[in-house]
């Protein structure tokens, strides 16, 4: 793993979770059930809602993963994905992912969907992630400029090394990354083959 650490505009108040805008509640088939606030969706046991995660690769086919900033409400400082978030009402998953990659990582990318999975993970005393998560893969174009309110650092992982590290230090990784690689085990390989 190699990493770089962002510098500059760090403030907890600019972290996305401070925006209590609506997210889209869904059923297990991703049918929309209405809007709920981001806070309500993540409080207690959580409410199943639509989300996405991106897995970007570099020119050598390595995964770019972000370590969540210390300002995150849930799983602060865990290695998670390249970027994740929630589509706004009326916004497609792909458009939302492109928007958040620009906001969090300061770069552009081409993305394609490789599937989705549902998971539930609770962090005692803090809240839950209960999401139907769409998985998008792509390659970052241009240099990264991570927003420190969202990203503590960006690491570069080879899939084989990541698999070993996740087994040895599972608490260092966000539960949705673990669930993704369990549910869609070929997702990273598919990303590498498509974008090499």
Low-pLDDT segments, ≥5 res: none
Strand tally is 10
Q: If you compute it from the alpha carbons, what radius of gyration comes out, rounded to the nearest whole angstrom?
A: 15 Å
Strand content: 35-45%
Could you tell me the mean pLDDT?
86
Distance between the ends: 19 Å
Number of helices: 5
Percent helix:
10-25%
Helix-strand makeup class: alpha+beta
Largest pleated sheet: 8 strands, mixed
Word description of this protein:
A hairpin with a 5-residue loop joins strand 4 (49-57) and strand 5 (63-68). The protein contains 5 helices and 10 strands. The protein has helices spanning 38-42, 93-105, 159-168, 175-183, 187-195; strands at 2-4, 22-26, 32-37, 49-57, 63-68, 79-81, 83-85, 108-123, 127-141, 151-157.
Index terms:
single chain, 196 residues, alpha+beta, eight-stranded mixed sheet, two-stranded antiparallel sheet, 5 helices, globular
Describe the protein's topology.
Blueprint lengths: L1 E3 L17 E5 L5 E6 H5 L6 E9 L5 E6 L10 E3 L1 E3 L7 H13 L2 E16 L3 E15 L9 E7 L1 H10 L6 H9 L3 H9 L1
Parallel strand pairs: 4-9
Antiparallel strand pairs: 1-10, 2-3, 4-5, 4-7, 5-6, 5-10, 8-9
Task: Give a brief outline of the structure.
The protein has about 200 residues and is an alpha+beta fold. It has helices at about 40, 95-105, 160-170, 175-185, 185-195, and strands at about 1-5, 20-25, 30-35, 50-55, 65-70, 80, 85, 110-125, 125-140, 150-155. The longest helix has 13 residues, at about 95-105.
